[in-house]
Design goal:
With about 550 residues, the chain is α/β, with parallel strands linked by helices. Among the domains are: about 200 residues, Rossmann fold; about 70 residues, Luciferase, domain 3, CATH 2.30.38; about 100 residues, 2-Layer Sandwich (GMP Synthetase, Chain A, domain 3). The strands form 5 sheets. It has a 15-stranded mixed beta sheet that branches. It has a 5-stranded parallel beta sheet with strand order 4-3-5-6-7. The protein has a 3-stranded antiparallel beta sheet with strand order 8-9-19. Helix 12 links the parallel strand 13 and strand 14. Helix 1 runs antiparallel to helix 2, helix 2 crosses helix 3 and helix 10 packs across helix 11.
């Protein structure tokens, strides 16, 4: 059986219409209300001529036959409505990084050939400046916010658009081939649009696969499972990051309630923790150390009743073992699930830490379809193999990269007749079947003939009690070819010398991996989702 995301949402909403679906600030939207609003959005998009134009069977893997809808929004119910409404209109929504400057936005919206955009009013001045550079952009839906920005000429107010549209279920033949598009973050290169069939991403990343690895046998089985759930989850990172809206759609497909914190333009640790407390949220999603450290600092400043919060999930970036241990000391009832995966693979594995098991980082129990391919990409490696391979995924994988045949061929090779996704992470499959993940090859440093993984050195540095954050990259060296340089932010009001940090590194990594230089900064640039901006770090180090 294969499924479409629009049909799944409609079926679950019909079964649990009165259950809270989205809680944002003072607003509680039931499943019936979200279904109504997303139907209206779908019908409005259809009324403006947007939808499917070419069936999947007539296209190459890197092509799209649907119109694309940009989501240029902070976290809000309209973001998730935008995704669902687009799916129900057979258009394809995609994520826009709201920190992008004008040049980056022009690149992204042109690359996606966006015909419509749903945006917060605060971004109207930026959008107005770049509109002349975007001839394909026809439809603008503006979401009112506290900025007071006026409606752009030719734009339509989001709520007025919904009010003017039919609440009836769109008369469309939704297909498992309809697209889901996720743009990569662009922290190591230009953003790329990853194309998934909805049937595949549902299983690979959006909660379609059962804990035992099996796929649902029917739509009724999905609805039955969703109707039995009473859980809630907070996706704390921006929804424009895949990990956050993946968590949200896992909640949708599990019949759960999505709770959002009130502050949506930056991370406010008190806001996050007080919302967890007030709403008695079962699970929270964060992205690695950049989210963990502020939350831990706030937990040490103020007491919160978080007995209802039993699960902390981290995805999209590694969570340091020392920070996991701090969470377990402060919240001993917590289960920490470190989920590994990428835009191009979906979920590939988990590392589970509890007070009883202790905390670790960098090793994962593989998910169905996860494997390690040889360095030459010519065979699947067996447990306990020598050397490093590529962390890969087979089975439910994306179609390719939007409009890019060459990158699609490189990232989705065939090995022994089977198609794999290989986004670029180096890994080793241990003898016990556990995957040891070393890091992204694109930020690997080649020093003196040795490959050094930036994330491995960052992990070692962050073990030091005075290090708040760290990013590692390479720079040219006459002696070594490249040398390791660490960009470090220390905790406020403390000091640590290069020697102190090197001594900490010596407890975790070999000497040849040590940083040859340190640059101390007041702030490390990361994406809103918490991912390190390696391009920024490389420019800083080069300077």
């Amino acid at each position: 059986m294969e499924f479409n995301l629009a049909e799944i949402h409609e079926a679950i909403a019909a079964a649990i219409p009165d259950r809270p679906s989205i809680v944002y600030r003072e607003r509680i939207l039931t499943w019936a209300e979200v279904a109504d609003r997303t139907r209206r959005l779908a019908n409005y998009l259809r009324s403006r001529g947007l939808g499917l134009h070419t069936a999947r069977r007539g296209l190459s893997n890197w092509e799209s036959g649907q119109d694309h809808v940009a989501l240029y929004l902070y976290n809000c119910n309209e973001y998730l409505e935008g995704m669902l409404g687009a799916f129900k209109s057979r258009t394809a929504p995609f994520n826009v990084n709201y920190r992008y400057v004008e040049e980056e936005l022009i690149y992204l919206l042109r690359d996606a050939r966006a015909r419509a955009i749903i945006y917060h009013a605060v971004f109207a001045p930026t959008l107005e400046k770049i509109r002349p550079e975007l001839p394909d952009l026809e439809l603008l839906l503006q979401v009112e916010d506290a900025s007071g920005e006026a409606l752009l000429p030719g734009a339509t107010d989001y709520e007025q658009a919904l009010a003017s549209a039919s609440p009836e279920r769109p008369d469309l033949d939704w297909s498992p081939d309809d697209l889901y598009i996720l743009y990569t973050g662009g922290t190591t290169g230009m953003p790329k649009g990853v194309l998934w069939r909805q049937a595949d991403v549902f299983i690979a990343a959006l909660g379609g696969r059962a804990p035992d690895g099996s796929e649902p046998a029917s739509l009724d089985a999905i609805v039955k499972r969703a109707a039995q759930s009473t859980a809630s989850i907070m996706p704390a990172p921006p929804l424009m990051h895949g990990a956050a809206h993946w968590a949200s759609f896992n909640a949708f497909h599990g019949g759960q309630t999505i709770v959002m914190q009130s502050r949506n333009d930056r991370l406010d640790a008190h806001d996050v923790l007080s919302t967890l407390e007030a709403q008695k949220v079962l699970a929270i999603l964060i992205v690695g150390d950049a989210f963990a450290r502020p939350l831990l600092d706030q937990l040490r400043k103020q007491n919160y009743d978080l007995q209802a919060t039993r699960v902390l999930v981290t995805g999209g970036a590694a969570l340091n073992a020392s920070l996991k241990q701090e969470f377990l000391e402060l919240l001993p009832h917590l289960t920490i699930i470190d989920s590994v995966g990428s835009s191009e693979t979906g979920s590939q594995g988990q590392n589970v830490s509890t007070r009883e098991t202790g905390a670790s980082t960098g090793t994962f129990s593989p998910a169905p379809g996860s494997c390690v391919l040889s360095a030459e990409l010519d065979r699947v490696l067996e447990p306990g193999h020598e050397g490093l391979g590529w962390f890969a995924q087979r089975g439910r994988v994306p179609l390719g990269y939007l409009w890019d045949e060459a990158k699609t061929a490189r990232a989705f090779p065939k090995v022994e007749g089977v198609r794999y996704s290989v986004p670029g992470d180096r890994a080793r499959l241990q003898g016990d079947g556990i995957v040891e993940l070393l890091g992204r090859d694109s930020v690997t440093i080649n020093s003196g003939g040795e490959k050094i993984f930036a994330e491995e050195v960052e992990h070692a540095l962050k073990q030091h009690a005075q290090v708040y954050d760290a990013v590692v990259c390479g720079r040219p060296s006459e002696r070594w070819g490249q040398e390791v340089v660490a960009v470090v932010r220390l905790r406020e009001g403390v000091e640590a010398s290069d020697a102190d940090l090197l001594a900490e590194c010596g407890r975790h990594i070999a000497r040849y991996k040590f940083p040859k230089a340190f640059i101390y900064v007041d702030e490390i640039v990361r994406s809103p989702s918490g991912k390190a901006d390696y391009r920024w770090a490389a420019e800083l180090v080069a300077g």
